[in-house]
Amino acid sequence: MRALERESHDQRINSRPDLVLIDGDRESNNIWRQWAPITPIIDMGEIERIEVVKGPSSVLYGTDALGGVINIITKTPDFALKDEWAFNNGATGIYSSVDEGWYGRYRLSGGGHGFDFMLGASGRDNDNYEDGSGNEVNNSQFKNQAFDFKSHYYFTQIIL
User: Fold this and answer.
1) For the purposes of burial, counting CB atoms within 10 Å of the CB of 152, is it exposed (0-12), middle (13-18) or buried (19 or more)?
2) Which pTM does this prediction carry?
3) At 32, which helix (H) or strand (E)?
4) Using a CB cutoff of 8 Å and minimum separation of 24, what contacts does 93-99 make?
5) Fewer CB within 10 Å, N or C, the chain?
């Protein structure tokens, strides 16, 4: 989303930035605004969905959401309802020829008896992109590594 901008008689009025939420928790504060884009902070393999609220309904989130709301929902383990311990793991690997890049992710999740967890690690390494003519686009390379952990414990019995 873009911040709305209006110029009038040499005065410039900018609306506040969009409100960014991760799993419903506010992330767009002064520290967050220094980091751009969002991708180094959240591994793309852990995003379940992205909810966008724009227009007048974004005021339900307060004055810092006048430009809209972006809520990034991450994947959640769902082992807590089991009466026995269970575990699951998986790995993903992707190669991209346009930038000779690779992406890899490993995830371990499990739980039972009211507790669940998810642990993940990922890495990405991309060289400069090439445009349609085969020319290298300078300064488009990047690398990152990410580790994440998410857990829940339900103190009372869950009734469905």
Assistant:
1) middle
2) 0.62
3) helix 30-33
4) 96/126, 98/129, 98/130, 99/126, 99/127, 99/128, 99/129, 99/130, 99/140, 99/141
5) C
